[in-house]
Amino acid sequence: GTAIVSTVVENSQAHAAGLQRGDVLCHAGTDGQHEIMYNEFVAMASSDQRPLEFDIRRIQTKAAAGGSSAGSRSAEAYARKQAVIAAAEKRERAHKKKSKPVAKVGVGGGAL
Hints:
It contains 3 helices and 2 strands, in the order αβαβα. Strands 1-2 form a two-stranded antiparallel sheet. The two termini are 36 Å apart. The mean pLDDT is 79.
């Protein structure tokens, strides 16, 4: 799936860069049109490549000024953003569970 920001740690580089929960990470120079896949982003973040460069696509949830349907558009955008965030969090939990180190057991049952 797509790389989506599920959490921004205060005082982190992501926080300083202005990333927000729910931002969709996209390849640099694509104006948010070509999304970075989650596994691709994990590989980028694990590499020595710095700085990480990418565009973001942000789902806006504030109602536009004027227009009677602005509130319902905002509610729909908010629901869509929450669904995107929930999917990102689920994928992150699955990745952490999959990559969690397993204790090695030596002779006699003790951990090495």
